[in-house]
Amino acid sequence: DVQVVVVHSPLNDTQKQxxxxxxxxxxxxxxxxxxxxxxxxxxxxxxxxxxxxxxxxFTQQSNFRYSARHLSFMRAKFANVPLILGTATPSxxxxxxxIEKKLARLTLTSRPGEAIMPSIDLIDMRSxxxxxxxxxxxxxxxxxxxxxxxxxxxxxxxxHAPI
Length: 163
Description:
This protein is of the alpha/beta class. It contains four helices and six strands; from the N terminus they run βαββββαβαα. The model has no long low-confidence stretch (mean pLDDT 85).
């Protein structure tokens, strides 16, 4: 069995200390955590993984300000270990680093188990009427509504306020 510890800010002081000590003495082989986990003492670090790397949740905005994403680059570099930035939608910074050959891009060509890859349509909105939704998207929504199904459409935020 592999010892896994979870590190996140809602832990009480005793729980945090226990998790840090298990990581520091090498008993915990996997440390799973939020952005504050980047500060966990790990003497035998072998791999750093940042899941959904473009998400701004990795940036601490109050008190001591830091980017756990940027610190993960430093931790991996100082420990001379691989860093995996996992995402289906890489940040522009990451894409630029891939183009400049500073980072390697690995692409999943299949999904585990029975999961199938989604179909993706790229629609040039310049060829669409000046409406927020494309004709193919409206048609797809109407299709599911006609089957008495529900449709959930998530849009990107129109602004950002950290507080």
